[in-house]
């Protein structure tokens, strides 16, 4: 099977032009099939402020009302997506930018919750793996924004981490798939304040150990636990490995000389 | 050769939800290969106003400064493009929305002018016909926004009429191509104030006659002349016919029972 890299760009990376450009250059140079999934960073929030559209956050989650959906569609599927594609083209990497509505790439439904209405937030139902394969085999690199659709004409705002994971899972039957989460940190840190404390490899047994509370606290930063739980879910569903680390070190992440590798052992 | 329809949606149609929905339904139902090219209507201007970005018009042309380029990329390549794609999906038409940067679809250069700087306005150099063919043969319908790129990382704002024409010309070697300009009027009118005065067919000889001044004025509305000149250029370059008419009457335009047909005779 051919290799496939599915790379999520963290929100902070989108806001940092230096980091973003470094990532784009390394992505362009990467051999093999490749997909970049991005969110929106702070740009959508800033645009909403300029337009006097109040942003509601409930439990740290943005409520996507109709006006906010327009903003994220403009910023994610328009400005950020096309800016990244144009930069890739300038590096000699022929890329195509897509939302989940394009080619019926990501089918989703409006989130159902017993007590809360998240607005136009989508949970993923299905990835159109055949369409992704057709484009990858051209060959084309894909740049995917986290705007999905419900097949009834409604666009939906969807979590970009989830989209990256669902795509990696869906493609793992056709490609030897590596899922990469890039962000502003060196990797999974034993001590969140100490960049040199990056854990190079985490298997299942070690992860269980890391999550065991010591003096009432798990040994790794609580914020990393959902990411790691998701990483193991991806591995259970056929993804070969999950890499977590700094965007500017994409090549080293893939070479295994930086960041954290999550493995099935 | 298979038939291909390249359909430009006029700006006023984008602003009129009823007309847009009617066009989208008829486009979805259309048999054969098909491409929709759209501009942005008044949405980009309204967004610029909300964000206090002054819009400069010189001789009726919008100057695209860096902030305005961001706005048109958000509105054209993001909001309008993805809204149309999601609507098409809901009509059972599998469509993919693209800018000119995607798949290197439309290569352009920043407009050169001896005395004026139009800003980030692009003039088309090349259409990637092989990429268009690959997608059409899936089969997929294409929805194209008029944001192009210069292959050096710069996005450019480009005239949507021109993009429709360039694509129709580039594809006419591979498909029997009909180029359709839809707008809010019934077709080319002999009397601009009289919707029933639509001219059903215009060939070269008749066009020459129509342009001849009578009492110092051409017999057709001066605003139509550049569109008609362009139509004959397209026909010279291999496009089979050009149709001009009302967006809500797409099926009748194609059937030849409404609008104006520009022919090579």
What does this structure look like?
2 copies of one chain form a homodimer. In chain A, helix 3 (43-50) crosses helix 4. Chain A contains 9 helices and 16 strands. Chain A has a single domain (3-262), classed as Carbamate kinase, CATH 3.40.1160. The model of chain A has no long low-confidence stretch (mean pLDDT 93). Chain A has helices at residues 11-14, 17-29, 43-50, 66-90, 129-136, 160-171, 204-211, 225-236, 250-255, and strands spanning 3-9, 33-38, 57-58, 61-62, 95-98, 106-110, 122-127, 141-144, 147-149, 155-157, 176-183, 201-202, 213-214, 217-218, 241-246, 260-262. The two termini of chain A are 21 Å apart. Chain A has an 8-stranded mixed beta sheet with strand order 5-8-2-1-11-15-16-12, sandwiched between helices. Chain A binds chain B through residues 47, 50-51, 70, 73-79, 81-83, 85-87, 89-90, 94-99, 101-104, 131, 134, 138, 140, 147, 149, 151-155, and chain B through 47, 50-51, 70, 73-79, 81-83, 85-87, 89-90, 94-99, 101-104, 131, 134, 138, 140, 147, 149, 151-155.
Write out key terms for the chains shown.
9 helices; homodimer; 265 residues; 8-stranded mixed β-sheet; Carbamate kinase; alpha/beta
Topology:
The structure is a homodimer of 265-residue chains.
Chain A (H helix, E strand, L loop, with lengths): L2 E7 L1 H4 L2 H13 L3 E6 L4 H8 L6 E2 L2 E2 L3 H25 L4 E4 L7 E5 L11 E6 L1 H8 L4 E4 L2 E3 L5 E3 L2 H12 L4 E8 L17 E2 L1 H8 L1 E2 L2 E2 L6 H12 L4 E6 L3 H6 L4 E3 L3
Parallel strand pairs in A: 1-2, 1-11, 2-8, 5-8, 11-15, 12-16
Antiparallel strand pairs in A: 3-4, 6-7, 9-10, 13-14, 15-16
Helix pairs in contact in A: 3-4, 6-8
């Amino acid at each position: 099977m051919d290799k496939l890299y599915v790379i999520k760009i963290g929100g902070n990376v989108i806001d940092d032009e230096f980091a973003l450009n470094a990532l784009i250059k390394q992505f362009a140079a990467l051999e093999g099939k490749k997909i970049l999934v991005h969110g929106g960073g702070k740009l959508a929030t800033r645009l909403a402020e300029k337009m006097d559209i109040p942003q509601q956050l409930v439990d740290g989650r943005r409520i996507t009302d109709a006006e906010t959906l327009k903003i994220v569609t403009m910023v994610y599927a328009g400005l950020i997506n096309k800016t990244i594609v144009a930069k890739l083209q300038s590096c000699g990497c022929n890329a195509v930018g897509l939302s989940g509505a394009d080619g019926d790439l990501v089918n989703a439904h409006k989130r159902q919750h017993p007590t809360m209405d998240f607005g136009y937030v989508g949970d993923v139902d299905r990835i159109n793996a055949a369409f992704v394969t057709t484009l990858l085999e051209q060959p084309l690199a894909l740049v995917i924004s986290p705007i999905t659709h419900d097949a009834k004409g409604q666009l939906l705002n969807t979590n970009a981490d989830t989209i990256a994971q669902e795509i990696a899972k869906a493609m793992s039957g056709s490609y030897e798939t590596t899922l990469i989460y890039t962000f502003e940190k060196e990797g999974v840190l034993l001590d969140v304040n100490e960049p040199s404390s990056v854990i190079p490899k985490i298997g299942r047994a070690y992860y269980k150990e890391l999550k065991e509370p010591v003096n009432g606290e798990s040994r790794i930063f609580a914020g990393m636990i959902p990411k790691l739980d998701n990483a193991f879910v991806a591995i259970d569903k056929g993804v070969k490995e999950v890499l977590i680390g700094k965007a500017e070190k994409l090549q080293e992440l893939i070479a295994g000389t930086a960041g954290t590798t999550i493995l099935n052992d």
